[in-house]
């Protein structure tokens, strides 16, 4: 096959259908940008989960005198020194526990004042109303239920709380946004495929006389189809390159510079450039193969003589 002929036919096809080619490039770029964005969002959510779940604790709250009067879980009275020692000993013996930290009522009151000092309720609280607690660091944050089962309802224990629950709503929201992005991405991919198929059909129809002659003189099917397939692949590859450029630009100006979210939201462990760069080859490969395959199947009917 003469490469010069194929390249010239690609140029002719792109020029003849310039408007539709531009539409293909834009739709492929948008759909693949959403595709890459959804992959990066998944990585970001997983990174945040690993970062925060590794830092949160399971807290075993102990009964105080106030709880003994108002909380059914503390009906047997405030926690005793012997109960505290036994709870601590049992925690230390558990294989899932990495570290146990005791927080006294005075320490709990101090931390509350630091976090909620502006609250009207803060001025009415006293240290003896706060709860003593054991902050338990787990080797595996998923093993929270082991602690809850062992200590919930135990004498001297008011409740067992997993700090992960405060993060679950955030991660559910992020996952919901990610699935919404994937749904839009799927819709855009369908639109892109329809545009590619229509562009190839129009191009094939406009050159049906030439392709018919080539078939009559013995040209192979692949020789006839190659310019159309490569025409779609080139348009898709341009769209993929635009999508990659968009993702790189967004990462640079939103995370690192411009908005500089990495500085303003220091509590969020943003994914690095390596995560983004590993997605770019996949986006480019998809942008090349998807239009080529769509064109191949569309041409099987429209290039028959």
UniProtKB/TrEMBL annotation:
Does the entry feature the keyword Cell division, yes or no? yes
Residues passing through the membrane, by range: 21-41, 179-200, 221-254, 280-299
Q: Does the keyword Transmembrane helix apply?
A: yes
Where is the protein localized?
A: Cell membrane
Superkingdom in the source lineage: Bacteria
Q: Where is the ABC3 transporter permease C-terminal domain?
A: 183-301
Q: Which InterPro entries match?
A: ABC3_permease_C, FtsX, FtsX_actino, FtsX_ECD
Which keywords are on file for this protein?
A: Cell cycle, Cell division, Cell membrane, Membrane, Transmembrane, Transmembrane helix
Q: Which residues form the FtsX extracellular domain?
A: 56-160
Stated membrane topology is: Multi-pass membrane protein
Subunit composition? Forms a membrane-associated complex with FtsE.
UniProt record similarity statement: Belongs to the ABC-4 integral membrane protein family. FtsX subfamily.
NCBIfam families in the record: FtsX_actino
Q: What does this protein do?
A: Part of the ABC transporter FtsEX involved in cellular division.
The protein in question is named: Cell division protein FtsX
Name the source organism.
Streptomyces lancefieldiae
Q: Which gene encodes it?
A: ftsX
């Amino acid at each position: 096959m003469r490469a010069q002929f194929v390249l010239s036919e690609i140029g002719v096809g792109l020029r003849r259908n310039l408007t539709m080619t531009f539409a293909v490039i834009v739709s492929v770029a948008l759909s693949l940008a959403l595709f890459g964005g959804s992959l990066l969002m998944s990585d970001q959510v997983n990174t945040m989960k690993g970062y925060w779940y590794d830092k949160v604790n399971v807290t075993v709250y102990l009964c105080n005198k106030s709880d003994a009067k108002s909380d059914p879980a503390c009906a047997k009275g405030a926690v005793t020194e012997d109960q505290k020692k036994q709870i601590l000993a049992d925690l230390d013996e558990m294989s899932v526990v990495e570290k146990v930290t005791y927080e006294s009522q005075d320490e709990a009151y101090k931390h509350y004042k630091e976090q909620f000092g502006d609250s009207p309720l803060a001025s009415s609280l006293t240290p003896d109303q706060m709860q003593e607690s054991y902050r338990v660091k787990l080797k595996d944050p998923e093993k929270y239920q082991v602690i809850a089962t062992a200590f919930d309802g135990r004498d001297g224990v008011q409740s067992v709380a997993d700090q992960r629950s405060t993060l679950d709503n955030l991660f559910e929201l992020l996952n919901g946004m990610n699935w919404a992005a994937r749904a839009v991405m799927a819709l855009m991919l369908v639109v892109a495929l329809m545009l590619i198929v229509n562009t190839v059909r129009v191009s094939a129809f406009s050159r049906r006389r030439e392709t018919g002659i080539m078939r009559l003189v013995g040209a192979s099917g692949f020789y006839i189809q190659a310019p159309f397939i490569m025409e779609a692949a080139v348009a898709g590859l341009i769209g993929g390159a635009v999508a990659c450029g968009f993702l790189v630009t967004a990462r640079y100006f939103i995370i690192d510079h411009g908005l500089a979210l990495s500085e303003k939201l220091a509590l969020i462990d943003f994914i690095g450039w390596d995560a983004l760069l590993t997605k770019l080859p996949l986006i480019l490969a998809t942008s090349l193969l998807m239009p080529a395959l769509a064109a191949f199947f569309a041409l099987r009917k429209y290039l028959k003589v």
